[in-house]
Amino acid sequence: VRNSQLARHTRIHPGEKPYKCHECGKTFGQNSDLLIHKSIHTGAHPYKCEECEKVFSRQSSLETHKVVHTGEKPYKCKVCDKAFACHSYLAKHTRIHSGEKPYKCNECGKTFSHRSYLVCHRRVHSGEKPYKCNECDKTFSRRSSLHCHRRLHSGEKPYKCNECGNTFRHWPSLIYHRRLHTGEKSYKCTVCDKAFVRNSLLARHNRIHTAEKPYKCNECGKVFNQQSNLARHHRLHTGGKP
After folding, report:
1. Cβ contacts of residue 152 below 8 Å, gap of 6+?
2. What pTM value is reported for the model?
3. What Gene Ontology terms describe where this protein resides (cellular component) (predicted)?
4. Could you say which of 3.40.50.1860, 3.90.1200.10, 1.20.120.80, 3.30.160.60 is the CATH number of the domain covering 212-242?
5. What is the DSSP string of 120-169?
6. Which end of the chain is flanked by fewer CB atoms within 10 Å, N or C?
7. How far apart are CA 62 and CA 53, in angstroms?
8. Does the fold of domain 212-242 match that of domain 157-205?
């Protein structure tokens, strides 16, 4: 047993990765890592929480999740006193205070505070989209994007506004909506001090100052600063049909 453990450990040093995924070609230093990775393609989640029946692809993820039900948070941040259920969560959190970004992309040099952020970022370069919707075969680079997409098929809108009862598929949509009630406008123009409830609205407004016109008509080449203006213009070519 010890010899096999030593052999497995020595692969860390030369970077040997003999275990290959036949689906996407990704390689791993240990067979256990390959088995965990395969669940991305198969959608297998063999580890089930007995409290809420939520399922996970890893035993470690299930153990981490169980603390949600106990409410226990024994790991406390020394800077801001925020508490966490797992030591790994605390370790990630402390990088907010330290500004540490130990995970670097070899392609573009961008650095990240969490390894998971780097893994997601790498897919920008590779074009890899390992998360597939079983309903429509659309693929995604992030698991969270797939979860959000699935709600289009299920019609689920789990995020509810306590003010008016409106429901939303995505958490950011609820956050934006709440600002209609509070009047909060967090995104401010540095040129004219006009403020907006969404960053996308600020970006659109900024084009007034920069004169940027990124929306081009394929028919005549005319350019516009807003998508809505292009759509309105396009009806001139289609005879009023959208």
Report:
1. 169
2. 0.44
3. nucleus
4. 3.30.160.60
5. HHHHHHH----EE-TTT--EESSHHHHHHHHHHHH----EE-TTT--EES
6. N
7. 11
8. yes
- Where in the chain are the domains? 73-154, 157-205, 212-242
Q: How far is CA 39 from CA 36, 56, 60, in A?
A: 6, 10, 14
d(CA 118, CA 121): 5
The CATH topology of domain 157-205 is: Double Stranded RNA Binding Domain (3.30.160)
Contacts of 87 (CB under 8 A, 6+ apart): 75
pLDDT in tens, 175-232: 888 888 888 888 889 889 899 888 888 888 888 888 888 888 998 999 988 888 888 8
Residue 224's φ and ψ, nearest 5 degrees, are -140, 155
The single residue listed with the structure tokens 């035993």 is: 59
Backbone angles phi, psi at 129, to 5 degrees: -135, 80
The CB-based long-range contact list for 83-90 (8 Å cut-off, 24+ gap) reads: 88/64
